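[worker-b] picked up task from shared queue
[worker-b] task type: protein-ligand structure
[worker-b] ligand name resolved to zinc ion; SMILES cross-checked against name lookup, match
[worker-b] sequence length check passed
[worker-b] input payload:
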Amino acid sequence: MIDGHADGYTGRYEVICPACGDDPGLSYDQVPPDLQKIRGPSQSVAGGLAAFHVHVGLADAAPTGAALT
Ligand SMILES: [Zn+2]
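[worker-b] inference finished, payload out:
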């Protein structure tokens, strides 16, 4: 089960991973440095998803353009 996502509500695409203690209700500036490092953020959807895939270990398993819901 995938427990995080890349979120683009601020125009930045951040990897928010609850399994690592992150909280989607907190802004980038409100989370500890360790979580900021995980979040990125990326400047595009593709970049955010790529960072998320790397984080959860799917970098080599997920084909480019695969839907992540
Ligand atoms: Zn994580």
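[worker-b] attaching auto-annotations
[worker-b] Residues 46 and 64 are 9 Å apart (CA to CA).
[worker-b] releasing lock
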